[in-house]
Amino acid sequence: MKLTYLGTAAAEGWPAVFCNCEYCLKAKERGGKNIRTRSQALINDNLLLDFPMDANMHMLSNKLDLSSVESVFFTHSHLDHCSPIDLFFHAEGCYAHNLSKKSMTLYGNKKVGERIGQFVRAYEEERFGLEFCVIAPYIPIVCGDYTVTPLRANHSSGEEALVYIIQENGKTLLYLHDTGMPYEDVYEYLINNRIQADFVSYDCTYVTLPSGGGHLGLDSCQVLRDKFLAMGIIDENTVNCINHFSHNGKLIHDELVPVAEEMGFITAYDGMVIEF
After folding, report:
1. Most buried by CB count within 10 Å: which residue of 96, 98, 128, 203?
2. What is the CB neighbour count within 10 angstroms for residue 231?
3. Of 2.40.170.20, 3.60.15.10, 3.40.640.10, 3.40.50.720, which CATH number belongs to 2-275?
């Protein structure tokens, strides 16, 4: 399985759009891996996780053929994870030519469906080649070579946000964005279904700040990693990676890497590719 981190920032990006804090100015000055766009990831070349407002930039920066994507799984409806306007330029004809795949299936909760539906109604004269499926926690979806299982995320009031188990050809990814510490039923599902992850991507929005609520930070990532290890959900061969960072967390990428490495984590950056 190949995982590409297309964007690794929280909602405001880093540098944040209108911010002149010390950490945004430092990221601008240093550039490179310290520049972070809004969170999105690509599995192999055909499964996307979330669709933020930076998706077009991700396509350009990574020289991607996004028309090869067959499935998009949304974690929740917040704009930095579900900004669906560009999805409707998927329409072959005026907006797109020579698509590698004619159809794309979108998966998410009811709120995601409602947000996407607003654009469907606005542009109902076009044929977009899109299908939306409402999904629910703990009900696996088989799409192509993948089995994708939504889990309840501890994140968003007013909707049932999701995180995911993604399995392909004997490899297992736990993708934990956006969420705080998991609910007990998440652990129960992982244990009862004998899930052992080869790779875990941890929300680390708070970075160095004390974490709480609907996100994790370095403090809670370490607690969660150790809990997963004790439960047998991961082992000493599992790759543990932190991702989804806010400028409020203070450490730019160059500063965060050695801190995270000492704690046993690798640090995601925009364009980072991992094969496992």
Report:
1. 203
2. 12
3. 3.60.15.10
- Over residues 238-276, the pLDDT tens digits come to 999 999 999 999 999 999 999 999 999 999 999 999 999
Q: What gap in Å lies between CA 78 and CA 87, rounded to an integer? A: 16
**pLDDT at residue 62 is higher than 60:** yes
C-alpha distance from residue 184 to each of 153, 161, 163, 181, 227 (Å) = 11, 15, 14, 9, 12
Rg over CA atoms, the chain: 18
Structure tokens at 119: 């654009």
Distance CA 237, CA 225 (A): 13
Asked if 118 contacts 84 with a C-beta cutoff of 8 angstroms, the reply is no
Please state the domain extents for the chain.
2-275
